[in-house]
Amino acid sequence: MNLTSINKLYLWGAQCLIFIVVLLFLVINKPVSINANLTSLFSESIHNNWQAIQQKINSQANTTQIYLIGHSNLEQAKQASNAFIEQAKAIADIGSVTGKLSNIPNQSTMIQSYKGFEQQVLSPQFRTALENKDLNKIFKIEFELINQIGDQLVAQTLEKNPTLSFADFLNRSPFPQNKINISNDGYLTVTHNHLIYILVTINTKEGALNVNKAKAIVSALNDIPLNPEVEYIRTGGIFYSDEASSSAQSEMQVLGGLSLIATLFLIFISYRRVSVVIATLFLISVSILYGFIGLNIFFDEVNLLTMVFAITLIGIAVDYSFHSFTELQNISPEQGSPLTKIRMSLVLSFATTTLGYLLLLIVPFVIFKQIAVFTVFGLLGALLTVLLVFPYLHKKLNFSREKPAAFYHKVNQFHQKLLNKNKASIIVFGALALLCIASLVNINFLDNPKTFYSVSDHLADNEEKVKNILGQKFDNQYLLIKGDSPQALLENEEQILPVLNRLQANNIVGSYQAISQWLPSVQQQKVDNALLVNAAKNQYFNQFSLLLGLNANKVQSAQHYLTPSIWFETQLGKTFKHKWLEDDDSYYSIVRFSNITDVKALSDALTSLGDNEITKHSVFVDTLADTERELSLFREVLLLVFAVAFATAFVVFSFRYGWRRACVGALVPVIAFTVALALSQLVQGYVNLFNVAAGLVILALGLDYSVFYAEHDFSASITQTTLMSALSSIFVFAMLGFSSTPAISNFGQTVFIGIVITFLFAPIITKVPANRLRKIRKND
What we know:
Distance between the termini: 20 Å
Largest sheet: 6 strands, antiparallel
Structural class: alpha+beta
Helix content: 55-70%
């Protein structure tokens, strides 16, 4: 059915109205938010409980921000920190601000945390001595405890446990090793370079890494009046997010604006019509609107980098404008369907580009998914606008020209002469391909996510200062242990403690913190109590009894046992509560490490515990290493996706153009990608996931060029459209190459190189004979 131009316009208006209503509904009821957390690049799909709990832990870590407020005088530092805390508490989206511990576990409260359970907890050394019946070792431990001058631990626990096993159990610090001291009034202090710093911790509310919230929080923090005589050092996720959002916003405005201006200027000098420029600007606006509709339909949250990558839609969507206006300049406005000749080419172009981007959905990388959805919806809007609106505009505004620009005839002639030298072209093309393939043999893939983005020297210096001052490395590694019940979890953790003790003894870790060190399982409490009862029965503590003149063999059998629900309500238990998590009827505990000296040795030790139950109930989490492994896997998946896309294009081209043209048409963008990848490695020194992802864009755009050359031969009009298409894409992706974010610049420069090579060699497809059916269709 051939619709009139006005009917096509009505049809376009109807579908556009539907999409706009959907967008308004989503914006009102489920507005999409912009996330500035550059570390949350992966899809949010959770495949198992382990991943769900890890994501929960990571989310908690992102909400913590640190301030160090320092002065040479402790009282001045306290006053400055108190003033800052009062101001910070009033900021919206900040959950809590603390500069001191209000409920610090001291010796007295630690003793109270075990009230009624004093004779069923043992330290590892005391337990070993009892198991080995080493009476000398037992007496040595007891003797050392009573000789600790000024320590009231023995005096406060002797009545409840005369064996001193309870005093020995408490004779240690519950806090990890670091430079932090706790003042008498609870302030967390650390001395560095003659300054005394107060540690202030800010916990932001959930979703604070949303762009608008992060900017609002940082802006409010910046407005707090600071004492010029006091040093303030800060670090945390919202400061990185604020900087990233400001940088991205600036880049979107500058790079996007320059790309748009260059594209519109190119259109004007080519068609010499203001109406063409306005129509193209309208098409770009529609495509961007449709792109945002797609994001709102499929995502609740969009990563900031996606918005920067969205600039690329300008260079791709405008291709439809080039193809249609080049055709319309030779068509009378009275013709009912002026785009009939290129309609199939436009549809095939949309199909190949859409295929390339839709394949990105396979990769569990949330940014690629969002870019794919935004681009596909945007191109759909552009295609519908060209097919349904441009015929009406042509009828009203008349885009036809008597003489197409002679410049494109000259470009076409030069391009044809260049490619007519068949042997030279084949030799150059083949040599280039072989050279690049050879260079890719030693390709250096770098999967470190830290190379995806850069931070300012100021933020990097602040983070390094905080690490040095606190004297505690912010280790990303931790051990996650699971149990089906609270007691099962404690028992699973206790099985791993001997391994952790060996690692600490070998200086692989400086220290670690585990709940079961302070809260033994009921099963362990029964064993420990039985050991004490047996020791008392066999008079193991006689030597100590004679020394003090008391009966140290008074031990009773336990009737009740200390459980997590009781212990976590005590002063000591509350300091460990954050390491205990529940999710879907399962229980998890976190074992944190500090001052790791050999991450590989730690990982090997905890992931190679043998064929026992320990490995089934624990996971060693190394955030950076795990991310690198996932990125490596995703890169391989992308390369497989690229191969599938190439094979699909080859099959489609074979049916329509014959296998010989299919080989050329599909291979040109593949070789262009190979060259681009090799040159990217030469420039960058490495290749990452974003360089590989650029291959799908090169393939999609290269197939577009091949389609138009195969459909319409090597004519001046096709040279005009492909040249303008290539130049517009080059403008966009070359601009991305100047981005301050390495991931974006890597992507941009690879696509830029690939497009240049694809444009130069795409017309080779016209030198290959078409199949018989294609010739018949063309003659008809």
